């Protein structure tokens, strides 16, 4: 078999697939190597199976959602941004639609269709060879220039070498390792002398320490709450409004994921953090206290449990019962002042401690990765090894939820596929 190619791409995820399309369109003989038995395992499950492809925010606002080094992304975004991505996919037969929050989804609402749109031109191209179930174990270099890769073909447990002067490392981060991205890509770069910024799970829920869920209260969503994360000395690190999901081992949901981007590095230090939920963010504490007093005295003959329904959805009542000392089964007129204060505190500042997230197994993205200082943003070529290019989450890039992460993968994949120095 001829083992010499123009370009080798390591990883058949979002960024690798688009790099491969661009390279083959340029007429390059391209090898796409994927370690899983199937390409695009993560892409197929994105957006809860619907794939939030990108976001239609203008560049200036979009970039604010893209981590601490947004300037790094300008060349990739200037070349291939949200409009270009939507057009690119529509040319491949995928129709898209814009939903709440400027988020773009396939009209079919199937992530699989995004994957199929990207893979079909590759399967049809005589210039592209795809090998699956094959893991790149080493990037080969001669002097200071890449020349190929060493792989293990898992089908036959055999080592093999493939050669090219251009290699795109598109092997992803560490989140959802069951989809194939388990940090191996970062290791390949490290072996070539690249600095790795310590990685942390990001866009991920928190485990809660002093939390007593109940059978009934597992996995339920509460909308329009305020969530704050503070240090134990009450210094506020994060605060926002939105929806949270209580699970049997902790809390997640859109604003918790957002919070995690701001606090994940702190969480992995020694001190715990406070997670504070305000179920009534629009009502002042004093006013709520009066409302509780009035309602309980007006409805004194009913059970506390029933009266509580005036303040919170029924799913929250077992959580209140399990995390306070309120006897919810007695008559409302028998509510002690102490219990009333506990209800107020539950509604306005339910506080848990957290020392860890749900980890990479349940994280949507990875913070950290190959240091951006060692990558030329205009070409995405390594400043350390000639011919080595980077695309996607393997780099120290991560963003908010809302389609930002996939746009980063697609834009950097496009740029890395296009450039030759
Ligand atoms: C559950 C979930 C839902 C998400 N939903 C969204 C969403 O709706 N919108 C959004 O913008 N972002 C979403 N994301 C984030 C988004 O999926 C990623 O940011 C994006 O997939 C990163 O693309 P990538 O190409 O860098 O990496 P990946 O898509 O992770 O692809 C990397 C590929 O490289 C392969 N690989 C790794 N090591 C090797 C090796 N040594 N040899 C060969 N192959 C290798 C892996 O198997 C993998 O297929 C979601 C993430 C998760 C986990």
Summarize the structure in words:
The protein has 421 residues and is an alpha+beta fold. It folds into two domains: 7-200 and 366-418, FAD/NAD(P)-binding domain; 206-357, no CATH class. It is 29% helix and 25% strand. The chain contains twelve helices and 20 strands. The protein has helices spanning 14-25, 59-62, 74-79, 82-91, 111-124, 184-191, 254-267, 285-298, 304-308, 316-323, 337-349, 404-418, and strands at 7-10, 30-33, 54-55, 96-99, 103-106, 128-131, 134-142, 145-153, 158-163, 166-169, 196-202, 206-207, 220-230, 236-247, 250-252, 273-278, 350-354, 356-357, 365-370, 388-390. The mean pLDDT is 95. The structure holds flavin-adenine dinucleotide. The site of flavin-adenine dinucleotide has 39 residues, from helix 1, strand 7, helix 6 and helix 12.
Features:
12 helices; 7-stranded antiparallel beta sheet; 5-stranded parallel beta sheet; 2 domains; binds flavin-adenine dinucleotide; alpha+beta; 29% helix
């Amino acid at each position: 078999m001829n083992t010499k190619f123009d370009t080798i791409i390591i990883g058949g995820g979002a960024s690798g697939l688009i790099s491969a399309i661009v390279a083959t369109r340029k007429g390059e003989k391209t090898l796409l190597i994927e370690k899983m038995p199937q390409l695009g395992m993560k892409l197929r499950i994105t957006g809860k199976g619907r794939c939030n492809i990108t976001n239609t925010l203008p560049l200036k606002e979009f970039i604010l959602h893209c981590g601490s080094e947004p300037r790094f992304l300008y060349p990739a975004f200037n070349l291939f941004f949200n409009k270009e991505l939507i057009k690119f996919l529509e040319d491949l037969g995928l129709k898209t639609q814009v939903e709440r929050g400027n988020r773009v989804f396939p009209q079919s609402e199937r992530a699989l269709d995004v994957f199929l749109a990207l893979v079909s031109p590759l399967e049809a191209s005589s210039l592209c060879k795809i090998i699956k179930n094959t893991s790149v174990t080493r990037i080969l270099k001669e002097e200071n220039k890449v020349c190929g890769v060493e792989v293990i073909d898992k089908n036959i447990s055999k080592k093999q070498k493939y050669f090219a002067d251009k290699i795109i490392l598109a092997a992803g981060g560490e989140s959802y390792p069951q989809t194939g991205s388990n940090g191996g890509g970062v290791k390949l770069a490290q072996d070539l002398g690249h600095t790795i910024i310590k990685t942390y799970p990001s866009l991920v829920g928190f485990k809660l320490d002093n939390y007593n869920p109940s059978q009934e209260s597992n996995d339920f969503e509460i909308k329009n709450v305020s969530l704050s994360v503070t240090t134990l000395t009450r210094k506020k690190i994060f605060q926002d409004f939105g929806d949270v999901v209580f699970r049997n081992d902790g809390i997640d949901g859109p604003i918790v994921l957002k919070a995690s981007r701001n606090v994940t590095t702190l969480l992995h230090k020694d001190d715990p953090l406070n997670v504070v939920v305000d179920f009534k963010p629009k009502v002042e504490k004093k006013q709520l206290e009066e409302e509780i007093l009035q309602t309980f005295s007006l409805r004194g003959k009913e059970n506390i449990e029933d009266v509580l329904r005036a303040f919170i959805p029924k799913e929250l009542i077992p959580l209140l019962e399990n995390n306070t000392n309120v006897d919810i089964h007695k008559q409302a007129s028998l509510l002690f002042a102490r219990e009333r204060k506990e209800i107020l505190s539950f509604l306005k500042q339910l506080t848990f401690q957290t020392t860890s997230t749900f980890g990479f197994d349940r994280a949507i993205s990875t913070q950290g990765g190959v240091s951006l200082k060692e990558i030329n943003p205009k070409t995405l070529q390594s400043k350390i090894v000639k011919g080595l290019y980077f695309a996607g989450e393997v780099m120290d890039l991560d963003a908010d939820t809302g389609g930002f992460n996939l746009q980063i993968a697609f834009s950097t994949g496009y740029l890395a596929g296009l450039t030759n120095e």
